């Protein structure tokens, strides 16, 4: 196996003569010749299992694909769903050649996509053929003559505009006719099992005030002017802070939010300082904070092991959320 050198940035000027071919899809018509699949030397056992496990490292959401034939509704769990294009709005799904669902997917027909919420593992199992008694019967809403699973986090209805050979799967490209989403957290699938996003990243702020207040009492006050940096992503997380007055702006990759008086910042990093700060935090207006150093924090935990035990319980509950 060759180790390639670091990839270089493509130098393609916008509007240059180099562009996507007119008929990109045409290449899908030709079935590629079967070639040998080389697996990493540390991957032992059945090559098919090793390949599957490699693919399983790609984390996805979970959907239920649905179709209607006359008055009958059929659903199937699928994580091989991807967004393809915004203009026109296109999505792609990949369906096993042995699945009944495939027989209902034809160019011109519609299918529904229901993106499942974190608590809907039972529905996912149900539509994957793993029926358990404690899962209620799913109910459907018909939109654009297409069934959608009620209670899902997001819904799409798409009309199949192309279908492609995909080895032991078939690929269906759908033009989206309807889309909506609600509030909530998605169900995730990774490494062959369900996962979910941790809902509440707070740690110290979960402690009862009788345990938290003595820790905060060891802090010293700081003031910041509007726009001033309070914490910078990547720097060592050697302090925990509580906002006393004002508002702070938290910027994490993909997420911006504000925190106000009484909220804690830097509470995860102070327990794991080697990882560095996860966010840039700036003052949005004048801000007063109380800063507790990691050293003072450890002294407080030594002085009152009840606080240390409570923290372990909070962290253990986090693991339970993702297990
Ligand atoms: P069946 O196996 O007959 O039906 C599926 C199940 O849904 C049955 O239990 C059936 O009772 C129930 N069901 C169907 N319609 C209704 C209804 N109207 N009301 C109540 N229950 C109904 N396979 C793929 O091809 N592509 C994927 O991307 C994919 N991703 C998956 C991701 C996950 C997380 C899981 C768990 C499985 C995935 N599968 C995928 C496997 C796929 O879900 C199963 O193989 C499924 O059983 C295939 O469904 P089928 O169409 O053959 O129908």
Percent range for helical residues? 10-25%
Strand order of the largest sheet: 3-2-6-9-10-5-4
Structural class: alpha+beta
Which small compounds were modeled alongside the protein? Answer: flavin-adenine dinucleotide
| Main sheet summary | 7 strands, antiparallel
Radius of gyration: 26 Å
Cα distance spanning the termini: 36 Å
3D shape: elongated
Mean pLDDT: 87
**Element string (H = helix, E = strand):** HEEEEEEHEEEEEEHEEEEEEHH
Q: Beta-sheet strand percentage?
A: 35-45%
Spans of at least 5 consecutive residues whose pLDDT stays below 50 are none
Assembly level: single chain
> Count of helices?
5
Describe this structure as you would to a colleague.
This protein is α+β, with helices and mostly antiparallel strands. It has five helices and 18 strands. The chain has helices at 47-56, 121-126, 209-216, 294-303, 305-322, and strands at residues 60-61, 63-69, 72-78, 81-85, 90-96, 110-115, 140-143, 146-149, 154-166, 169-181, 187-190, 193-196, 220-224, 229-231, 239-252, 255-259, 264-265, 280-293. The strands form four sheets. It has a seven-stranded antiparallel beta sheet. Strands 13, 14, 15, 16, 17 and 18 form a six-stranded antiparallel beta sheet that branches. The radius of gyration is 26 Å and the shape is elongated. It starts with 46 loop residues before the first helix and ends with a helix. The mean pLDDT is 87. Flavin-adenine dinucleotide binds at residues 62, 73-80, 94-96, 99-101, 124, 126-129, 131, 138, 189.
């Amino acid at each position: 196996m060759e180790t390639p050198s670091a990839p270089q940035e493509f130098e393609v000027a916008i509007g240059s003569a180099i562009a996507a071919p007119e008929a990109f899809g045409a290449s899908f018509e030709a079935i590629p010749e079967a070639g040998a699949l080389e697996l990493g030397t540390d991957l032992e056992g059945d090559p098919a299992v090793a390949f599957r496990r490699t693919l399983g490292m790609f984390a996805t959401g979970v959907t239920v694909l649905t179709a209607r034939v006359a008055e009958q509704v059929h659903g199937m769990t699928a994580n091989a769903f991807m967004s393809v294009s915004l203009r026109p709005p296109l999505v792609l799904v990949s369906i096993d050649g042995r699945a009944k669902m495939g027989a209902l997917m034809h160019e011109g027909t519609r299918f529904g996509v229901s993106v499942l919420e974190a608590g809907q593992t039972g529905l996912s199992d149900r539509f994957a053929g793993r029926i358990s008694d404690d899962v209620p019967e799913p109910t459907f809403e018909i939109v654009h003559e297409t069934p959608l699973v009620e209670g899902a986090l997001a819904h799409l209805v798409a009309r199949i505009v192309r279908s492609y050979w995909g080895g032991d799967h078939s690929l269906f490209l759908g033009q989206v006719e309807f889309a909506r989403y609600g509030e909530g957290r998605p169900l995730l699938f990774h490494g062959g099992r369900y996962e979910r996003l941790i809902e509440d990243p707070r740690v110290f702020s979960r402690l009862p005030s009788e345990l938290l207040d003595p820790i905060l009492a060891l802090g010293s006050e700081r003031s910041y002017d509007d726009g001033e940096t309070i914490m910078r992503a990547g720097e060592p997380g050697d302090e925990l802070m509580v906002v006393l007055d004002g508002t702070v702006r938290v910027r994490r990759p993909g997420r911006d939010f504000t925190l106000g008086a009484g909220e804690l910042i830097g509470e995860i990093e102070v327990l794991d300082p080697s990882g560095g700060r996860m966010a840039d935090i700036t003052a949005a207006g004048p801000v007063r904070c109380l800063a507790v150093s990691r050293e003072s924090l450890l002294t407080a935990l030594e002085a009152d092991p009840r606080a240390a035990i409570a923290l372990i319980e909070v962290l253990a509950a986090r693991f339970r959320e993702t297990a």
